[in-house]
Specification:
The protein is of the alpha+beta class. It has a domain of about 110 residues: Immunoglobulin-like, CATH 2.60.40.10. Strands 2, 4, 5, 6, 9 and 10 form a six-stranded mixed β-sheet that branches. The protein is built from one helix and ten strands.
């Protein structure tokens, strides 16, 4: 009888020590909500300018290939798309900034001579997401170099 009592205590102690490790491996790991920030440098310029596109991603998964396509809707309401932009995160990496690329270029063709607002959006191709449009922004192309001028100033083109 004494032997059974000791066995029970040993089993109870072993279970008490191993239970947290077993339970923690059974609980699924929470993944942070992925966030996206899209911007252009500069936000506003004049006709003929080139814009730098910046996409930052937070809450990413490690060891994952990401793929994005960008779209610009010009003031004439025409859509222009970029080639696919790729990025692969390293193990444990949870945020990244895509390598900078530019609009307009051969890999992202479109006009830069129409005055008005250009609407830019980023769609995620990989990994697949429920709503592929992950970020949006806009930039402005003006006819001249400034929003406004004093009555005594002549409009500049630079």
């Amino acid at each position: 009888m004494r032997h059974n009592k000791r066995t029970r205590y040993v089993i109870l102690i072993a279970f008490a020590l191993l239970a947290p490790a077993l339970l923690s491996s059974m609980i699924p790991k929470a993944h942070a909500v992925t966030s996206y920030t899209l911007g252009t440098i500069p936000f506003l310029s004049q006709e003929g300018s080139t814009f730098t596109i910046v996409l930052q991603v937070g809450g990413a998964s490690g060891s994952t290939q990401y793929q994005f396509r960008f779209w610009v809707k010009d003031p004439a309401a025409k859509l222009h798309s970029s080639v696919l932009q790729n990025y692969t995160t390293s193990s444990g990496q949870t945020s990244f900034t895509l390598p900078l690329f530019f609009y307009p270029t051969p890999s992202f063709p479109g006009p830069n001579d129409l005055v008005g607002y250009y609407f830019l959006n980023a769609t995620q191709v990989l990994p697949s997401v429920a709503n592929p449009t992950v970020a949006q922004t806009e930039f402005l192309i003006l006819l001249t170099g400034n929003f406004e001028y004093r009555r005594t100033e002549q409009p500049g083109t630079a």
